[in-house]
Amino acid sequence: MIRCSEIQWHAIRHLTRIEEVGATRLGVKFSDEYNHRSDEETRSSRNSPLLPVTHSPEQTIASDRTVRLLDTTLRDGEQAPGVSLSPDEKVEIARALERAGVSVIEAGSACTGAGERQAISRVTDLDLDARVTSFCRGMKGDIDLALECDVDGVHIVVPASDRHVEGKVGTSREDNLENTAELVAYAKDHDLWVEVIGEDGSRADLDYLERLAETSFEAGADRFCFADTVGHTGPEHTHEAVSRLAELGPISAHTHDDLGLGVTNALAAVSAGADLVHCTVDGLGERAGNVALEEVAIALDHVYDVETLELEEVYDLAQIVARATGVQLPPNKAVIGENAFTHESGIHTDGTLKDDKMYEPYAPETVGRERRLALGKHTGRAGVRAALEEHGVEADDDEVAEIATRVTELGDRGRRVTDADLLAIAEDVTGDDRDRVVDLLDLSATSGGAVPTASVRLSVDGEERVASGTGSGPVDAAVSAVREALGSMADAELESYHVDAVTGGTDAVVTVEVTMVRDDRSVTVARSEADITRASVTAMVDALDRLLAAEQQPLAPADD
Q1: Residue-number span of the structural domain to which 479 is assigned
Q2: How far apart are the C-alpha atoms of 273 and 277, rounded to whole Å?
Q3: pLDDT tier at 507 (50, 70, 90 boundaries)?
Q4: Stretch 236-244: mean pLDDT, rounded?
Q5: Based on CB atoms within 10 Å of each CB, which residue in 128, 251, 289, 360 is the most buried?
Q6: Is the pTM of this model over 0.90?
Q7: d(CA 403, CA 104)
């Protein structure tokens, strides 16, 4: 798999895997005839749902509550299978968490090894406003290792359920209480902020869990965490347990999503008195993952008007974590999935164009997103017309109807309909033929030597240009050659690069889809070839050709 960040297109400002669908960028650029929001509505869009959100009496979370988020992506998130973060990646993610306003960052587990301690130290050296902490097992040696990293605090994990007390640790309830008190006192003697996590608390005897929390507070702990370690419980039990614990002192909640109840249990805990929620970006974590930071934040903000984060930073944060971990975001993921604000259905598209709140719970700009219209078998005339207008294509009602029919037919064949497909159909229907600005005539690439190389022959405004380039791989080398041939006018941003639909057998075909942006215009192109390098370069050249054609200006001569 080739990642977008491995392909160096000219003037890339911020590479992201954004919305890997054949979609038309809308943002908030609706035309006046569709945009019915007043200025006041625009200013207050984050807190103005179409209908008031109603709460059940026992679950109400008051809007004046102070709730903070603890992010454990760098520790619990990294425990997801196949995920390993370098110190540089941890630093990048920590900075993004700081921009988002996360209150506590669990930077890792100091006991893991020297490399992990180096990474934690790198994060503490950033001097963030967020409290930086380390995970510690129930032993003094782990606290000493955390102190070496100069962290602000520690999470001391001790068993809470009999299964863990007796079966895992091999101790008794009373000895566990005594050990917990000693560990807390030791950490506090070293001026650390201390949170005690009762592991497997959701399966613990509640009376004993209360004793464990009470012992922790009496020893000096700053807070106690109710942990649904295996995603076992439901909101009723969570509410009951946290209600009892909250009478003893500050309580946190640590929930997992094994039953799909991560957010539900987190909200139940907050409604019962918890004021700190443990989360991970993108819901990373062991098994089905931890509760997702972005989902807890938007739920508290949208439903209860409780602010926890700078929500506009959420999507960039999610993309940074996805790139660093290599874990792709599911398209239907709440808040950050590529389909969250993408509309294809004719009814939904028409309604959204008339009123942008018609089929969305909150504005995409709230979480740093943009609205898009996807093209496919469900696309109606309103969606086609909006997409054509976005590309500056004029068509009368009959032509729009015909274009919509052809788009539907293409989607019916299982094709993902891209911007390039739409424009090609429009040109055929309207009879508006055009000459290509840039065309790929020939491509050769080699990667067997020490340095991958490639050469290209392009037609640029009817003039042949030949150039070569090198790179980290054959695709990167070919892109470098194209950039060299086009010169300074090849300025564009590669916004998305996606490879899929690889067929099996000796005649395997790969499909590459790219989205490129030039100024305020974007275009998505998909190309299928037997060779991934040719598919990639052809898609990029075709996308750039569309962007340059839209500007209706000739290219500058290639740079010497």
Answers
A1: 4-22+435-551
A2: 11
A3: low
A4: 97
A5: 251
A6: no
A7: 52
> What mean pLDDT comes out for the span 351-373?
75
Q: Say if residues 514 and 540 touch (Cβ distance below 8 Å).
A: yes
Place of tokens 């395997």: 508
Backbone phi and psi for residue 40, each to the nearest 5 degrees, phi listed first: -65, -40
Examine the domain organization and report whether 183 and 74 are in the same domain: yes
- Where does residue 198 fall: left (phi above 0), alpha (psi -120 to 50 degrees), or beta otherwise? beta
| DSSP H or E stretch at residue 173 | helix 173-189
Calculated CA dihedral for residues 163, 167, 169, 174, nearest 10 degrees: 60
Strands 131-136 and 104-108: parallel
Q: Are residues 506 and 546 in the same domain?
A: yes
Q: Give the number of residues written for the chain.
A: 560
* Same-domain pairing of 84 and 212: yes
Instruction: With respect to residue 558, please indicate whether it lies within any of the assigned structural domains.
Output: no
Q: Is residue 556 part of a domain?
A: no
What are the two backbone dihedrals, phi and then psi, of residue 200, each rounded to the nearest 5 degrees?
65, 35
* pLDDT score for 250: 98
Evaluate whether residue 424 is within a structural domain. no
pLDDT in tens, 150-171: 999 999 999 999 999 999 999 9
CA separation for the pair 525, 544 (Å, rounded): 10
CA–CA separation, 119 and 182 (whole Å): 28
Q: Do 171 and 70 belong to one domain?
A: yes
What would the two tokens of residue 423 be? 């424009």
Overall domain count for the chain: 3
Q: What is the pLDDT of residues 181-231, one digit of tens each?
A: 999 999 999 999 999 999 999 999 999 999 999 999 999 999 999 999 999
Distance CA 550, CA 548 (A): 5
Comparing 14-23, 94-103, 307-316, 511-520, the range with the smallest average pLDDT is 14-23
**Which residue, among 263, 316, 253, 268, has the nearest Cα to 288 in the 3D structure?**
263
For residue range 20-30, list pLDDT tens digits in order.
333 333 333 33
Same domain assignment for residues 123 and 70: yes
Task: Indicate if 271 and 380 belong to the same structural domain.
Answer: no
Helix (H, G, I), strand (E, B) or coil at 554: coil
For residue 521, being part of any structural domain is answered with yes
Say whether both 392 and 453 belong to one domain: no
CA angle 505/507/509 to nearest 5° reads 100
Task: Give dist(CA 159, CA 180) in Å, integer.
Answer: 9
235: number of Cβ within 10 Å = 19
